[in-house]
Amino acid sequence: MKNLLSMEHLSNDEVLAILERAREFEQGAETKLQRSYYVANLFFEPSTRTKTSFEMAERKVGCTVIPFEAGFSSMLKGETLYDTVKTLEMIGLDTVVIRAKEDEYYKELLEGINVGIINAGDGTGQHPSQSLLDLYTIYKEFGRFEGLTVTIAGDISHSRVAKSDAIALRRLGVNVNFLCPPEWAGDFEAQHAWNGLLEESDVIMLLRIQHERHDVYFSKENYHQQFGLTPEREKQMKEHAIIMHPAPVNRDVEIASELVECGRSRIFQQVQNGVFVRMAILETILKER
């Protein structure tokens, strides 16, 4: 595993190995890396959780983090992403973590680039490190995947999290449902009402409404009433069921504000889990450099 680009490229064994290593890191294990590696984070879209989580994980496994500011890079002068990454390679970097607006941006880097590439989100394509931390959160809670039911509700067509999680969860034996307005289903077969979903789901995973990717105005109040997780709907969930959200959260849109930190919520635990998972990702990839 020299790169992490898409959940489609990971086998179940590779997924489970990363989750197990994340568990070991959470329990206090030391990194197995034998030297310090040089890493840069190239984020061309806004990010709080993913960027800082990677930075923390990089430092925890002993990496030297080389600052990179997208707003001051030569890409503003017309340099291609390939030439930017090739430049960083020749300077001496071992791995780059990239978030970009373009779907599958990494394809132009697969020939001629000899640093590790970690996809931190490509347009509306994939977000594999988020998917892995979601899987870790679920596995910590239930100790298994087989036979669970996960309902993913929200802006499905624009969500790289939905796409990544659907691939991984189904391959691990999870029954995955989708809930969204009809116009947001994209290529997914989705339901358009909560009927029966709350009562059968072990996990309700809510997605942010990606306002920046919508051209047509929609009513936040109407969305919350029809598709949001309200306190009334939370009461219909299974006793052991949990609430997840990749964040950032639009409070009182996809989820009532009072539920964000309720007893069922694992939203902030997901953030914490993300550091351990990204430590495992980095160690796995850097060992191949």
TrEMBL record:
GO MF term (any one): amino acid binding
Keyword Transferase: yes
Catalyzed chemical reaction(s): carbamoyl phosphate + L-aspartate = N-carbamoyl-L-aspartate + phosphate + H(+)
Binding locations of carbamoyl phosphate: 49-50, 99, 127, 130, 247-248
Gene3D superfamilies on file: Aspartate/ornithine carbamoyltransferase
EC nos: 2.1.3.2
Record HAMAP family: Asp_carb_tr (MF_00001)
Subunit structure: Heterododecamer (2C3:3R2) of six catalytic PyrB chains organized as two trimers (C3), and six regulatory PyrI chains organized as three dimers (R2).
Protein's name in the database: Aspartate carbamoyltransferase
Species per Swiss-Prot/TrEMBL record: Ureibacillus thermosphaericus
Gene: pyrB
